[in-house]
Design the sequence.
C-alpha cells in the first residue's frame, strides 16, 4: 500500500452520503482509479458535484476496483469535513491538495535552508525545505512535512 498520485485519473459517481464512493466509470480521455492508482493504494482525491457548490478534497484508499474509501478530508464545502453528497452526478479525480505542495515563490526563512548551510541549533519545525548540500549537527524535530531537495 503506497501513496500514488497520477495524472488524468477521473471517474464519475452518483454516490450519496458520507460513506465510501462507488466509482461508476472512467471519464472520456482519462484513466480509471484502478489502472492509475491501483487497488489497495492511497491517493489524494477531489469530488465535485455538478450543479452545486459541494466539493471535497481528501486522502482516500482505493479498496476495490470501483470503491474509494474517503479516509481523511482536507478541505470541503462542509467546513473541511466529509460532505454528505446528495443525488446527482459527481466527478471524482486524483489531485494534489494545495496544503501538500511547496510554493515556488517561498522566501527563505529559518525553516527554509539552502545550499552550503549548516544547521547547528536544536529546533522544532512544523515543516520545511532543505536544498542541499546541508550539514545538520544538532537535533531537528519535524512535526509536519520536510522536503529534502
Sequence:
Amino acid at each position: 500500500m503506497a501513496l500514488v498520485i497520477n495524472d488524468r485519473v477521473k471517474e464519475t459517481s452518483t454516490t450519496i452520503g458520507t460513506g465510501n464512493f462507488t466509482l461508476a466509470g472512467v471519464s472520456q480521455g482519462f484513466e480509471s482509479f484502478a489502472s492509475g492508482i491501483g487497488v489497495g493504494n492511497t491517493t489524494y482525491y477531489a469530488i465535485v458535484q455538478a450543479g452545486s457548490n459541494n466539493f471535497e478534497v481528501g486522502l482516500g484508499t482505493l479498496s476495490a476496483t470501483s470503491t474509494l474509501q474517503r479516509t481523511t478530508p482536507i478541505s470541503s464545502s462542509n467546513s473541511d469535513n466529509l460532505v454528505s453528497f446528495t443525488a446527482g452526478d459527481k466527478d471524482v479525480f486524483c489531485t494534489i491538495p494545495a496544503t501538500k505542495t511547496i510554493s515556488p515563490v517561498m522566501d527563505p526563512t529559518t525553516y527554509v535552508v539552502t545550499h552550503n548551510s549548516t544547521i547547528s541549533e536544536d529546533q522544532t519545525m512544523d515543516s520545511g525545505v532543505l536544498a542541499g548540500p546541508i550539514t545538520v549537527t544538532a537535533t531537528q524535530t519535524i512535526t509536519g512535512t520536510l522536503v529534502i531537495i
Observations:
- The radius of gyration is 19 Å.
- The first strand starts at residue 10 and ends at 13.
